Amino acid sequence: MGKFGVRVYGLGAILLGIVGLVWADFAMQWQPVPKDIPLRLPLAYLSAAALLLAGAAVQARRSAAFGAAALAIMYLAWVLLLHAPRVAGHPSNIGAWNGVAEISALAAAGVAGFASLSTHPRAAGLSRAGQLIFGLCPLVFGLAHFAYADFTASMAPAWIPPNQLFWAYVTGACHLAAGLAILSGVHAKLAARLLSVMFAGFVVLLHAPRVLADPASRLEWTMVAIALGLTGAAWTVADTIANRGRA
């Protein structure tokens, strides 16, 4: 398996961990831990350190599979313990589902990455499961882009023609197309690659300039970390699809 995608995926976790350590807190709405939970501060430090260490483990050949598995487990815990209750309480809220999808995409990429990096006897099944779960997530992203088109448009750089709302709808449609391609297997590798390129575009054109404009903003740093992680996640899934095609 190519290492580029999984390393970028790990870099997203490293940055997210650094942000957590600097601000001594969890990852905001992406990790919605209740304010009144006992031992919240030490748990926040522990979570941030775990992200940092697992992301670093992904960068080394010998520990890459372990790091990917650790990140998959952590992100899955966020989904089950933190996001699922929100969806259960508001099942028609696409915003709640979008939170599930973002972290589920990271968890799924960790599963697929682990399967491709390890000699686990069920690696093929784990890889396919990771791909399918990941494929569901862009569908939610696309629906969120359409449901919250005005908010999505406000994130797009105003200098890119023709207008911000146009790009909100275009990127929403691209998410839907990518998800359907990955799930159906029709040009799935290409779709995952292009999805990664789009996420990378978000990092470079949307999030990085916002961080530079407001380097003290915890929100902006968290968003760029999540976007970076998703960039690597999509490329990792594309790599696993390519490997499956050669099997």
The ordered string of helix (H) and strand (E) elements is: HHHHHHHHH
Alpha-carbon distance between the two ends: 12 Å
Helix/sheet category: mainly alpha
- Rg, Å, rounded: 17 Å
Low-pLDDT residue intervals, each spanning 5 or more residues: none
Say how many strands there are: 0
How much of the sequence is in beta strands?
under 5%
What summary fits the major beta sheet? none
Number of domains: 1
Helix share of residues?
Answer: over 70%
- Kindly state the mean pLDDT as a whole number? 95
What's the overall geometry?
A: globular
H/I helix tally:
9
How would you characterize this protein structure?
By secondary structure, the protein is mostly helical. The chain has one domain. The protein is about 80% helix and about 0% strand. It is built from nine helices and no strands. The chain has helices spanning about 5-25, 40-60, 65-90, 95-115, 125-145, 150-155, 165-185, 190-215, 220-245. The longest helix has 29 residues, at about 220-245. It starts with a helix and ends with a helix.
Q: Summarize this, please?
A:
The protein has 247 residues and is mainly α.
Topology of this structure?
Layout lengths: L3 H20 L16 H19 L5 H26 L4 H24 L5 H25 L1 H7 L8 H21 L3 H26 L4 H29 L1
Helix pairs in contact: 1-2, 1-9, 2-3, 3-4, 4-5, 4-9, 5-7, 5-9, 6-7, 7-8, 8-9
Please tag this protein with its features.
247 residues, mainly alpha, globular, 0% strand, 9 helices
